Amino acid sequence: MENKIEAGYVFIPLLSGSVPEFYIQPMMTCIGDVDMMLHNSDQLAIPEGYTPPTQLPGEFGSCVYVFEIFNAEFPGYVYLITSYLLTECIDDDNYEAIHCQRTIAEGNRDSVSMPAHGPALLDYTTFKSLSLTPCYRTGKYLTQSPSSMDLVLCMRCLIWPPQADDWPTRQRNYGWPDSATVDHVVSNGCNVVQVAHPQCRQDEWMNKYQWRLSFSRAEIVLLNSWMPVQQIVYHMLRIFMKTEKLTDSTDNDSGSGILSNYHIKTSMLWVCELKSRSWWTDDLNLVRICVELLHT
Which of its termini does the chain have fewer beta carbons within 10 Å around, N or C? Predict the structure, then answer.
């Protein structure tokens, strides 16, 4: 039986980004800082109209506020509205849900005195005493203390969101990801992070209340299912982007014309679905593959 958090709340950490995604030994380091997502043990998000759960994983506390997810003006962006309070029953460890006052959820990043980078808070300290989650595939822990850590405050959603309903069932001609990997991804649900769409960040209200669906949990599972050559190509592209300074940010909020690791990851995920294994392995030419993906 898992022990519940009986009073107050704690932040539950999840390593994301390159640390848990790479299972190969990189040729050159591509891990400059560490990305970590933190969700509250007393908060849970569910899709609009869904019934709140009667059972929760042990990481949640005995009292949990439930927020319904409502679509915002742009795909993938949402608003959260407080809808229920879950309290754990002493007799059977199930949760009882009661309706609570419906209020729109405001992000809590402003309450933390750290510089922001998108949805992340930058912590320029070394985390010598922090026990990090092991890499998904290898089980290895980070061996060196990072010079900085990007902390992303988020809310946990245990249910695969309806906004991504087409992903598990869409046609895949080459069998990647396989059904077991798809099931694993869907069973992990997603997170919701407090960040507004670039076109909404000048709006004081939307910048405060708009959130975005995050599929970092899905990405960790998917990238760890890649063949080694696919991980090497992804690593090479990240290094190229970094050394050529293609990811340097600008002062404008729109980010127009700026490439990021997000573009590289998205391109890789698509080509893994659209190309057969033989495209990667026959007449192997890493530079050819990288150039083709950069053109895309």
Answer: N
